[in-house]
Amino acid sequence: ITDAAGPGTITYAGDIRSAYESQLGFQVAGRIISRSVEPGDTVRAGQALFRIDGSDYARAADSAAAQTGAAQSAAATQAADLARSRALLKQGFISQAEYDQQKATTDQAQAQLRAARAQGGTASAQLGRTVLTAPRAGVVTKVEGEVGQVVGAGQIVITLADPARPEIAVALPEGGLGAVRSARSFAIRLWSDPTRRYTATLRSIAGAADPVTRTFAAKFAIAAPAGALHIGETAELAVETERTRGGVLVPLT
């Protein structure tokens, strides 16, 4: 049996992460032929990250372009024939039924042209998707694709984090949830430089415990200057609580 007075500060170890992480993958399948980034690299928006073999998609785009050209020529020919048929109809050389047939053929040619253009646009878009670019500026935290690897559409090959919104991720034990929720303040101290301290605010606590560790994942937003924190470094979260007094602590057994 011990004194039930609780400490005024509870500390938890955690690691610095980004509040916004994007797991990126190709929208088309293929074999990776180049990778231009490494974990820890800072990238800008629109920068090329990966490239897959686009030869098949290039041939598909060329084929679609040829089909579009053929459909455009056929549509132009049918339009000219329709114009002549209209003149002949006015002069009484052809019947209304013949003109209607010519008009239907022209409409069909125009529909085929629209379909060919749509297929061409899709083929061009597929070719453009063989290059994976950064949707925004950030830091590469994980690379899961290698040159020569065949990846499927949607398969994750890289994780990009936004360093402008840092947070600390900690695992809270079941008995520490109440203290965290009622805490007066939170502070962050870096293991690499214990003299630096930053304030933090509770962002979220998982609604269910991890089935293996029986801890609750919690995230705290950090108020720190730009560039002061590095994604992946270890830090310590200090939870400032009211010091409890009186009473005794009895073992559960």
Short structural summary:
Helix content is 30%, strand content 35%.
Runs with pLDDT <50, length 5+?
none
- What form results from the Cα inertia axes? elongated
| Strand residues, percent | 25-35%
Q: Span from first to last CA?
A: 11 Å
The largest sheet is:
6 strands, antiparallel, barrel
What is the number of helical segments per DSSP (H or I, 4+ residues)? 3
Question: Level of helix content?
Answer: 25-40%
Strand line-up across the major sheet: 2-11-14-13-12-15
Mean pLDDT level: 89
Cα-based radius of gyration, to the nearest Å? 32 Å
What is the number of strand segments? 16
Can you offer a commentary on this structure?
With 253 residues, the chain is α+β, with helices and mostly antiparallel strands. Helices cover 30% and strands 35% of the residues. It has three helices and 16 strands. It has helices spanning 55-91, 96-128, 177-181, and strands at residues 2-3, 9-18, 21-25, 30-35, 42-43, 48-52, 131-133, 138-143, 150-151, 156-161, 166-173, 185-190, 197-205, 215-223, 234-240, 248-249. A six-stranded antiparallel barrel has the order 2-11-14-13-12-15. A four-stranded antiparallel beta sheet has the order 3-10-8-5, with no helix packed on it. Helix 1 packs antiparallel against helix 2 (96-128). The model has no long low-confidence stretch (mean pLDDT 89).
